[in-house]
Fold each of these.
Amino acid sequence: MHIEIYDTTLRDGAQGEGVNFSLEDKVLIARRLDEMGFDFIEGGYPLSNPKDAEFFQRMVAEPLKHSKVCAFGMTRRRGVKPADDPGMKALMESQAPVITIVGKTSDFHVKEVLRVSEQENIDMIAETVEYFVQQGREVIYDAEHFFDGWKANAEYAAKTIAAAASAGAMRIVMCDTNGGTMPEEVARIAGEAAAKVDKPLGIHTHNDCELAVANSLAAIDAGAIHVQGTINGLGERCGNADLISVVANLALKKQGYEVLEQGELDHLTELSRYVYEIANMSYRINQPFVGSSAFAHKGGMHVHAVNRVAESYEHIAPETVGNERRVLVSELSGRSNIIAMTTKHDIDEDKALMDRILREVVDKENAGYQFESAGASFDLLVKRISGTYAPHFELVKFHTSVESRGGQPVTEATVKLLVDDQVRHEVAEGDGPVNALDAALRKALNGSFPNLRGMQLVDYKVRVINSEAATAASVRVVIESRDADGEVWGTVGVDENVIQASWDALVDSIEYKLCKDEGKMA
Amino acid sequence: MHIEIYDTTLRDGAQGEGVNFSLEDKVLIARRLDEMGFDFIEGGYPLSNPKDAEFFQRMVAEPLKHSKVCAFGMTRRRGVKPADDPGMKALMESQAPVITIVGKTSDFHVKEVLRVSEQENIDMIAETVEYFVQQGREVIYDAEHFFDGWKANAEYAAKTIAAAASAGAMRIVMCDTNGGTMPEEVARIAGEAAAKVDKPLGIHTHNDCELAVANSLAAIDAGAIHVQGTINGLGERCGNADLISVVANLALKKQGYEVLEQGELDHLTELSRYVYEIANMSYRINQPFVGSSAFAHKGGMHVHAVNRVAESYEHIAPETVGNERRVLVSELSGRSNIIAMTTKHDIDEDKALMDRILREVVDKENAGYQFESAGASFDLLVKRISGTYAPHFELVKFHTSVESRGGQPVTEATVKLLVDDQVRHEVAEGDGPVNALDAALRKALNGSFPNLRGMQLVDYKVRVINSEAATAASVRVVIESRDADGEVWGTVGVDENVIQASWDALVDSIEYKLCKDEGKMA
């Protein structure tokens, strides 16, 4: 049985505290979900803000390959025709092929929050769904407060979903909007609901009782064929069901369900981290399936057993979801990691060299470096320690300044370098101090290294490492660069001074490019 | 029915990556759990390290009032008598009234990991339990890999727990050691196990499938009367069942269960944060029940409804667990959020003013601002728009520069301000450009505003908003400040230039402090 995966990271996920996606962020995430075979991607609520409306225009201009794009909205306002409702117009203008309409299930909400008659609510649901169906759209109906409504007045709740079903909604989604429902209630009510409508059911849960994943699975076991959630469980309050766990459980733990595209399960860890990176959020190290601790073994007894038989303390093989086993607090594990990471350097498992590299990596990591997203800096470190590194230029000095007189600030940087024993002294302006430094550095180097012209910075991230000391704390800068061949590499710098940390990452990025083009990084 | 709560934060929780408790930490946590009426507190594994052994001596010297202290250990080694086993000796020396013994349930583990005969494993369990019972201790038997073992060979698994039960163990605890079991399997197997032993059952789960809480509840519904877990779900890999969620669900969501001392439920939030503080870990803002986002409302529709009827988007009243409701401001919010956030500004629900504020918030958020963690900047924005804001100083110019000649960079900043029509022109050095600007700004202002001396920056965060354009993209800076009264406030700045964005956030922070001390932010 194929279970439809409906992602609402871009809409419900964006309701989470501290979550804020730019238009470009949303497009990037949608493309990644599309590649992995998600069935539906809810892009936003076009009436609520211009960014969401623009997202749908981007999807029209550059359509996805597999996933269906969904636009979210509410039932029409009371007393107006759907065609005259601004929300309906915004949904039509989105040109999304699927329209997801949320409506009220609970008589309490109809009376106390919406403040319309029970019949008017039924009409609002039926007319809204019917309107989009007549316009040739597929409609998914999200029944808000479904379980609370059913418990309070099952007869009325059943009428609301029957209205949506008769009006042509292709899925009826049972929403545990407040996240307060227990799994046994989900199972029971889902069974009762299935008997009342002839359309397939879906499930949408929230994690307020730490049961969002369990409730999603309970509904599917009771017959739902469609599940809504977000990557990493982002979302309002305690978040939505984490689709990472839902998908992994359906595919690996339960019998008889198919999800996503064949063979995409081993990209779950990558997907999780990609979304965290785009949202500029820290990973949850103990996140089920994809966290960096999910297959980390600390206790000596467990490490010993895992060394004998991996499955003794692992419920699945970590590779299945693209994750990896780690053994903590062990120099041995360190060395085997380093060996794994240095195979391309052709240093023949030289044990003394490995130890020196390991010590340097540990020292750097203690100082705040992180090489996971900075492989180019790691490769340069290995070259430096093994004595095969010759820098292409030498710093004499750099200087950068920002001055403001209340309006647009003026930013300038100078760099003075030795390149092939020649002094190059250049100045440039920029949008900010790092941009200006980068520009001056290129001016000083482009003459000798014309291949730098095809290289550009594609990402720049800053994180304060020890936040207790505020602006005097250390700062980690990670830069991602790309060249004309499409290769992308990451470099890192750490310093108390954000400018120095940025400089170090910039220099590594350029040195890596120059070494690489000389065939010295292979 | 009273459900026994068994806390293993100090033992299994300490296996979590990054978790490390000192002896004093352990004593503090134990006392707190004791006050709240936890039935059992597992203090450690006395054989494994001296700190755990010392913990038990402290518990003997200063006994707890309510909770029973438990010492953890394994069954005796193969081929030795319990009285001669160093693990058994360490357990006896702990003087703990309750001994928790873990033993093997799974024939696979007996054969592949322990490498003893099936009968020897049964003898190890029976003799170990019997030994402690004879010494007058209460014994809890933790059946490791219980569900995996039962699925592989139910007959052998049943024999292992029957051996522990006949030997006198007072509780048989079913452990989902690898965290891979589904709730329906837990329910089924718990039912089968109950038919095989005449001692009460307990449950111990791990969160590898994000189902630890659901599995705990499933076992209790199937008849278990004892549940093991940790505060905040600390623990190896993905952690143990979070007792915060287990307790809250049992007390508030399920019928017929009693947990903890009467009236202690409203200390759960405090307990959660206390354990995070002691472990020096960051809170998980979206943690169920106790996270700071657990009752935070961002979407306009939700805020509107919560203002009408709180329970419309809250599954329980936040006070029940000692938490509180919060309203967040964002582009997703409608006028309701603004009204809720501006009640302290005494602007009488002036609709036109609200609309201007909302428009400004939406414009700012489209430009990359985010006010959720920058309430002070939001309050200043409201004051500016409503015309009640008078700045305490005016910028003439600022200048900041960083220069490096290869070693430690030299960083300097100057600021020139008008304060009460007087020119203040100051210079300072710093660890980085923002630190230097902050120092120069304080030099220029401290004379007129001595109350700034008690204020300090406690956090500084930078994020690039549109990462596609790299160093030329916009940057959002969020600063958190604290004053001598312990009040903490957040401010935000956005600009293409990280220095300008930092300046804007710094100025807001200082202006907020000055307005506040004049009673103008009430």
Amino acid sequence: MKEFPLSKVYRFIEPGPVILLSTFNGQKNNVMTLSYCMVIDDSVPLFAVSMGAWDFSFDVLLSERECVVSIPADDMLEKTVDIGNCTGADTDKFDKFDLTTVKAAKVKAPLIKECPVNLECIIEDDSLLNRYNLIILRVVKAWCSQEHFRKIHHNGDGTFTVDSDPIDMKSRMTRWPEYIS
Amino acid sequence: MKEFPLSKVYRFIEPGPVILLSTFNGQKNNVMTLSYCMVIDDSVPLFAVSMGAWDFSFDVLLSERECVVSIPADDMLEKTVDIGNCTGADTDKFDKFDLTTVKAAKVKAPLIKECPVNLECIIEDDSLLNRYNLIILRVVKAWCSQEHFRKIHHNGDGTFTVDSDPIDMKSRMTRWPEYIS
């Protein structure tokens, strides 16, 4: 995994992939699956995730104020779904799903070696939790082993899709030259 | 297009597709492309979009307080990109891109016949605009001609992907039975 510029991390969130969010509670790691997330602003490395007290990771994230967001490729589809269908309350998911941890640079939660993208994040703002279950995360360090890969998307009904190969439309992006460089 | 239950509209936003947002300013229709959007809560038909004053549709959306969000399929990939690369300030995009308008039931902006999903929306909350460019939209009427179709995703760099066929993982969704019914 190589370090990736923070100015371009929005490119991993914008396509709307299913993500993995890992926390460390001081004793052990946990990981959850989620897909409610969005870019807040492409000029700063901020994105929003929707979480709530029903998630086992919620209290840890709020108390530790940091996490790692990893983006799995399609070869992890089954694992990604299964991680979202058990709970850290009674399961060591890193062990159960044979995830390889890599030490992060700025946060205590681990990177996941099997994921092409790993984003070390801190909580920027949790004032929108009560109204909208929203937490704004700031990426403080980004790692990438592969820039384009088949991301996973959830249709919200237990069916998923994976990406096609990328289709190059750069020549049509005449109004947005800053995005294609 | 058939009416679609509001309780399930999150299923069209959760996978992170590129969307079209149409407005009517009292005289003419306009449409823009965007892909910063997320489900706020699957139990209510709310979702967030990120927009700003740099978008020609912004003032109209804020003054009219309503819009239509249409979700294009992959057969509209080129059109969807091109709609995002010209401006309603000098272009009648519905005319230029040969979009067929259908009268909406609850808002003045039009549905787009060529899109499998059309969501009539009102502004629920624009108090997050200054801080995060976020507008919370509430779907008040939903229309669907096809539930599963190849949505478009933007990698944020002028390359796009389209969905694979849906992959059925319902049997693994043991903790979330409410999502698969």
Amino acid sequence: MFVREAWYVACTADALHEAPLGRTICDERIALFRDGTGAAVAIEDFCPHRGAPLSLGRVRDGRLVCGYHGLEMSGEGRPAHMPGQRVDRFPCVRRFPVIERYGFVWVWPGEASAADPAALPAFPFLEDPAWAYGGGLYHVRADYRLMIDNLMDLTHETYVHASSIGQPEIDETPCETRLEGGTVVTERRIAGIKAPPFWRAAMQANGLDPDADVDRWQICRFTPPSHVMIEVGVALAGRGGIDAPADAKVRAVVVDFITPETGSSHWYHWGMARSFRVGDAALTESIREGQGRIFGEDLEMLECQQRNLESNPGRRLLTLNIDAGGAHARRMIERLVRREPAAA
Amino acid sequence: MFVREAWYVACTADALHEAPLGRTICDERIALFRDGTGAAVAIEDFCPHRGAPLSLGRVRDGRLVCGYHGLEMSGEGRPAHMPGQRVDRFPCVRRFPVIERYGFVWVWPGEASAADPAALPAFPFLEDPAWAYGGGLYHVRADYRLMIDNLMDLTHETYVHASSIGQPEIDETPCETRLEGGTVVTERRIAGIKAPPFWRAAMQANGLDPDADVDRWQICRFTPPSHVMIEVGVALAGRGGIDAPADAKVRAVVVDFITPETGSSHWYHWGMARSFRVGDAALTESIREGQGRIFGEDLEMLECQQRNLESNPGRRLLTLNIDAGGAHARRMIERLVRREPAAA
Amino acid sequence: MFVREAWYVACTADALHEAPLGRTICDERIALFRDGTGAAVAIEDFCPHRGAPLSLGRVRDGRLVCGYHGLEMSGEGRPAHMPGQRVDRFPCVRRFPVIERYGFVWVWPGEASAADPAALPAFPFLEDPAWAYGGGLYHVRADYRLMIDNLMDLTHETYVHASSIGQPEIDETPCETRLEGGTVVTERRIAGIKAPPFWRAAMQANGLDPDADVDRWQICRFTPPSHVMIEVGVALAGRGGIDAPADAKVRAVVVDFITPETGSSHWYHWGMARSFRVGDAALTESIREGQGRIFGEDLEMLECQQRNLESNPGRRLLTLNIDAGGAHARRMIERLVRREPAAA
């Protein structure tokens, strides 16, 4: 079950150079490429001539040339040229609306006419030079909603990520969940603790004593269809937590763009934006590497959970207070899907 | 088709240490671990919180802690603790009765209330210090009954194991099959032959002349649901065969515990118990290594046979005199399955 | 969809030595071996005893001995011997008619009684000492008709094989398609061009100036059920093309035997027969190696096309003039299938 009438991250802007890129989003096979103006475009990954995947072809003069017999497709999905053929009566393929912003290429897998650029959520810290960003991509063989559950309930850090960001105080501290203007927010604040290894390193990198007592926060925000931004950080104890002065805290946003591929798999663009030592590329890389390792730990769990749920189809799960974020997010998705044209 | 109300080998006792072990038996996903007393226990491999496999977790103070969000399960399948939660109303998961004996952990995948410790077959030679044992484990993508057929008809040794235990005299000598107190026995005795390579080595190891004429025996015994014990050996010709004095024979029991995983795959614990040079660990290892190689030769055949049968679903097979052991075993299994509560 | 009442290449004659060979053709699992006279024979790959694949066995005295329990099958599919058994009432397995000719073993997967040796197409250049031949085998996970389409429309060379035999002039030159005595012929003649890399090397190997202007031809001939022979070559410009004197041209036949395995996979025996420097084994090997690399480029495209078509089942494709060869071949196949006994 996915919301089709929505913007999803298809790839990073950097991943789309000269070569086209094939990617399945919400069960739609899509070929992405750059047209003659350099703009990212997306069309069905199906050559109307003989059904070859267009993404195996190459881009020439802003058109996608099928790698089998050379039919050239425009960024609007219109056959534009083929040696020795008149292509004006050839059938078109679907075009998918695209926006390139925040360093990502966003695709709208639903009705093109319904695509609304204003529906793209705002991620100001991804455009702000006062922030640095690094991230990566995983393919996960699990329903994308299991990833949302995962990110909206960070008690799992204690167990899955015991050696980096997990600490017992997390699941000893209750979290609060609320709806806030079309988003779901789950928040946990932990006062007067020692920072776990990942944050100790961040404190050190930012000139703070890693052994100092800190206040820690985790504010997870789900925005439909499937983005989770998590405000995270630690501040010296008693200095105001997330509102502490810049020199008394380390603060970051965990960025999670979760793009359904099929009903049981998804693409997961993860990353971290931070507001300290933003010019330090080595630090960016080291955080990225550490985060990649930590997030990799979730993959096996999610893929095993997926198989376990498939083997136990009728079975009810528990929805505890810690699961409230994921549960609200799922209900929000269900409501949106029911309102879609395809549901009528 | 499997008997559910029965004891199956889940793993060796040695395989179950600090870490839990996930294993599917008769289509049931089971997590095995050791409780606070060190006793092996088995519960459903499904966390009642969010469906994660419990076997990915860890054991703490005799409880199985889910590796996702930390729900602790007791060996009875009862939620016992979770940070920040009251677990007394959490649903339980199934518990599977367990017996640890003969160096193996035995699980009863059927109704727990029906589990009868007295139904565990006796394997005295596995507890007797006058015998030594070595063995291993294979996963086989074939119906477990194909393995029973294989072991209850040793004429295949001539073809599959030509270079170790096979010899032409095997399939030239008729076998006899009989029912004996709820078991199926297939027996072959071959008089006045030369020993094949495996037994020549065993004779030499036991101080006998490997070139001497011998009498050879193979007595296969199937006990439901799916264990096959095979008395095997050679004695100097004319000294009484299996009843010859200890210094005139080499004698062993091939141990086969065949545990259905799904309808088309099984776990195969194989081994050999012997009553000569029992303190010689190097000999144990060398026999184990040789047996592992020999039994590995069966795997390809069984997996190919399985695929061939799946491609020819309606097809009748022959049941010859040499197949009588397997045929009786299958009928015995069918009768037991028909009598099970699940069949009613 | 395949024609069953027809001869298909099962393997090269060289591939069938002492060991049997298992191969699925038109969904029939077949075991091939050589009988006591050295003649290739083919029977069902299913032992009537316990269903083991006979092709895992060995050949002894012209009989196929099952590798599991030793049942010996004759080349007619009749049980001939089994130690300790009377086999005269054992069921037979199917026999498949076989012809060995042109360096290949041909099998008739349909009704044995309908097999007509005269229906084997003639390939005189494969028996003529004035020609040399080299080739190879690929397994392709795609409907065999996608391979026929591929070979009956060589405009794809421009795109798929740009660095070897492709050149822009191919798809700028129209092709002509005609029916000719139960075969489909697609022909393209290109006058006054430079030869592409593969043919430059062939010209050089044959003592011609590789920089000379040439006339190039491609004459693709489909013969049911699924063989495509392609006359290819270049001649010095204006010397008569394919009819030019031998010292003014390089000429070859691309040999394509396409054998359906299942509805979505096939075996592809490809090769090249040439009429120049036929004694030069190193040249044969170098052409074979180059052709293997070129044809390997088609495999990914065909397998991706197959998956794309499976994901878009109802979708219509275009049939352009360049596709006429493949379209005629498909219609010819459909007509033959409708006339088969199995269709009635």
